[in-house]
């Protein structure tokens, strides 16, 4: 019973990272850019504490997709499987 909300939060974060990484693109998906803060020592910290630059529509799309990913038990595992299969077929 406790695992469902935790998995929902993890899946919402995973889909955010997929959007940031450009793994999922299209009209229905948000186009997010991170403006890194140059005073932080590592690229990871620059990403983590950077400012997201996007339009209002992109933030609305992000909220919708995060909600869907958080409540759908199979969306993110299936998406990850498709991304791995696609990368294996290219390589």
Count the DSSP helices: 4
Tell me the total number of β-strands.
2
Query: Over the alpha carbons, how many angstroms does the gyration radius reach?
Result: 15 Å
* Share of helix, binned: 55-70%
Beta-strand share of residues:
5-15%
In short:
With 91 residues, the protein is mainly α. The protein has helices at residues 3-21, 43-49, 56-71, 75-90, and strands spanning 33-35, 51-53. The chain has one domain.
Describe the structure.
The protein contains four helices and two strands, in the order αβαβαα. With 91 residues, the chain is mainly alpha-helical. The protein has one domain. Helix 1 (3-21) runs antiparallel to helix 3 (56-71). The protein starts with a helix and ends with a helix.
Element layout with pairings:
Elements: H1 3-21, E1 33-35, H2 43-49, E2 51-53, H3 56-71, H4 75-90
Features:
91 residues; mainly alpha; 4 helices; 2 strands; 7% strand
């Amino acid at each position: 019973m406790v695992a469902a909300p935790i998995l929902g939060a993890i899946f919402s974060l995973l889909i955010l990272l997929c959007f940031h990484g450009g793994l999922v693109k299209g009209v229905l998906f948000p186009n997010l850019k991170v403006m890194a803060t140059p005073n932080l020592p590592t690229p990871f910290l620059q990403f983590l504490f950077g400012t997201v630059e996007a339009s209002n529509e992109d933030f609305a799309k992000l909220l919708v997709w995060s909600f869907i990913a958080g409540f759908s038990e199979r969306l993110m595992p299936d998406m990850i499987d498709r991304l791995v299969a696609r990368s294996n077929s290219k390589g």
